[in-house]
Amino acid sequence: MIDFSKKIILDGATGSLLTERSGAPAGYRLERLNLENPEVVYSVCRDYVDAGSNVVYTNTFGANPLKLGDETGAIIKAAIDIARKAADGRAYVALDVGPLGKLIGEGGISFEEAYENYAAVIRAAEDRPDLIVIETMTDIADARIALLAAKENSSLPVMLSMSFEGNGRSAFGTDIESFARIISGMGVSAIGINCSLGPVEMLPMARRLIECTPLPVFIKPNAGMPRFENGRTVYDIDKRQFTDAMNAIHALGVNILGGCCGTTPEYISMLAGEIKEEVKRPAYKPVRALSCGTSTVTVDSMKIVGERINPTGKKKFQAALREGDFDYILAQGIEQAQSGADILDVNVGLNGTDEKANMVRVVDGLQKVVSKPLVMDSSSPEVLEAALRRYNGKALINSVNGKKSSIDSVIPLAKKYGAAVVCLALDENGIPDTVEGRVEIGKRLVSECIKAGIAKEDIYVDTLTMAQSAQKGSALCTVGALGEIKKTGAGAILGVSNISFGMPHREDINACFLQMAREAGLDLAIINPSLINIKPSEYARSFLLDVEGAVDAYIAYAAKTDSVKTEDLAPAGAPDMTRAIVGGMGGAARETAESLLRELDPLDVAAKHIIPALDRVGELYESGKIFLPQLIAAADSAKQAFAVLEEKMKASGVKDEGKRFVLATVKGDIHDIGKNIVKAVVSNYGFKVVDLGRDVDYKTVLEAVEKNYPCALGLSALMTTTAQNMAETISLVKEKYPDIPVLVGGAVITPEYATSIGGIYCKDANATVKALKEIFA
Amino acid sequence: MITAQTLAKYLGTGEDALELAKRAVKEVENSARCRCVEATARLVREDGTIKVENTVLELKGNDIAKHLEGCDAVYYFCATVGAEVDMTIERLKLTDLTLAYAVDLCAGLWVDAYCDELEERQRRMLAQKGLTLTSRFSCGYGDLPLSSQADFIDALKADKFLGIRLTAGGMMIPSKTVSAVAGIGGNVRKKHNCDVCVKRDSCDGGLCGD
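YS: structure for the whole thing
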């Protein structure tokens, strides 16, 4: 077995020598000589083995079905036989794979066609060579496809090299660092540079390549720069100059050396004579980096991930996806890049559309117009794989989580495609609400990734941003967990804007949260790039730090008034219950209920006092006068008032009215804040809410409906993938109970989608109350 | 290589055109990287065919035969402004269609101007040897088939050295790429090919600088 860490002398030029020895014209398919004139091919291989090459390449550079048609297989088989005979146990035989020479993608051949052509070459070799060399690639797309074909159709080790021009870029614009970052993680045994330039020009490139990859490096330059003389290509440096320059490259720590166009067995003989043993290469310094085909972003300080390629909550974007208006989507990418995004998140999950096809289309399109690395954002491993396969870069996968099914399906994709990966701090039990809980899952995922062979610098933990308005302590928990994760050496990523859900003037809170996370060591911030320029207020900071009274102070500040008082919302003349509930004063609500019960029966207290108060809260919320924290506080106060009524009813034996509402977040979905708000508000209106929780199986929902029938059913879903599960749940329930009203909601649900799956769309808790009132009227 | 004033002539009149031209020129300046592979070789004429010696290149058709009358060698090359220009045009198509149009036009003129430069340089070198050069002739002119483009690329190793690729329809990528051949002889004229020029309908005689 070949040891790539040792000194290896490769061969020199095959094509120029074959042209010379066979007299074939420039442009002739020299691979045909394997059948037409095997002796001349043998003589070239044999001369290299005699010169001291440890590896000889087969004469198959252009041997693929696009260039040679049906003869390809026979030509490849003959080439291997010839090289094997020439090697005669003294050298390894490498199957040489060159570019297809066709444009891949729009206007050219398809990705699949390119793959099939490379695969045909690999399969024709039947693993008879000792290794595969993919070389002289100028298009990183070609290089990746050839590599995937090699890895998926052979068990041989693979070396891969690209050609660069004097400016350090391939003809298609790939720079050396991006090449190294993209290919190093994809399972090659050695990575290199060949052709195009002479060894003098290649030296700084070899140095750069060594810095950017932990893998063994190989260098195979031309004999200087080419020029054409009467149809023949000639090169401008001799074997002495060549060997001197190669010695300098060797001294950098490059131990696999050979020659490309214009070099001959004499060059290789001199090289082999002088390169005696391997030189220790400088230790590789791991770097957090993501790449597209033409640039690399080093995550050495906080970088911005543009979040706008995502349909959630964006009507225009949703319409663009449904109507196939990809230009609109690509323009979003360009605008974000221009306004400062370093990296772009790509999420095109929308129910009722073909996410996989759309993802491939958007990823293909973005690569043509934006020079920024991409984040593949989907909850479907199938969609992720389709995107990763097509992406000519080192992507970031968003995401894997602590559930076993996710670990088993997503981590292998990161490994196979050399991608970095986001680890979400949640698992089968949901999102822990403690720092310790999130850190524990984060650490577990990091160790799973490392176990699978993913480098630590390619792992980013997301400690999950939850709405501060719905859950006090949210910001501190997220940032606290982030700080702990950073101590382990893993990277950190956060979606930022969720923190301000339900609040006015969200940018201020977002900017403040971003600052806190940045101080804790955030590496990647998924945000609207313009946020970076906003200076957050102290009000926002106090709100996020849970300072007493900060919620009201922030809302007052955001509303640009001195303060928002209960006086303004429920004036002095308003009934006591209204003042208590609107003001979020639970104690006062309870006391008011008790005093009202002295004169009225419980149902009257509810109908004449609590319900009108809640209606007022609903109006204020809808008109933007109060915000989510106040809505929740009001609902809580009302609940306390109802508790007083319930005790009284129990004591006097008043019966449950039977207005039952079975509520669940659908299977696969663990985002349940919205559902919980619905529960809090609805239960205040006298409905008996049967809360099944989150991630609820279809059958569990059906059983609950059976048990509580007649009733209404409420389902929520916050992810595009789980919206499908909502449809499944409804169809299962309606099969047995066709008339049951099903109220549906959640970020990804649209009125049209709701109707199409047999649901009644409710945009929020208030809308749910209204719908229920009509149903039970 | 192309000034805003020149480009503005193609874009129309008025200050708007000049402003647009300035922006377009800047975009092309920032993204164009002109490179070429070039060669000279003797011609071999047998049985009515014209071949470029030691290469697979055969120059088919009556129009190229007429163009190369009196020539016993050729200068042939492949030149490109590079892939980044295409990316710029694609990007602008989505954000500023007018500018995209102007950049596309400008980049086309740019690669033509680069070819002029190569041609003139070759002409000067030949003049020292007492030789002359015709103007250039590309695949797709007259009856020289577009499919010969693949042979130009093979003979010049333009795929290897410049990364030139062909689309399924035989167009070269990067899109602003030219392959061409010009005849070398003792006394041939730099001549224009108005009969076979694709721009003949829109040209007032000044497009190729005559």
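YS: worth flagging: The mean pLDDT of chain A is 91.
IM: good catch. Also Residues 577 and 610 of chain A are 6 Å apart (CA to CA).
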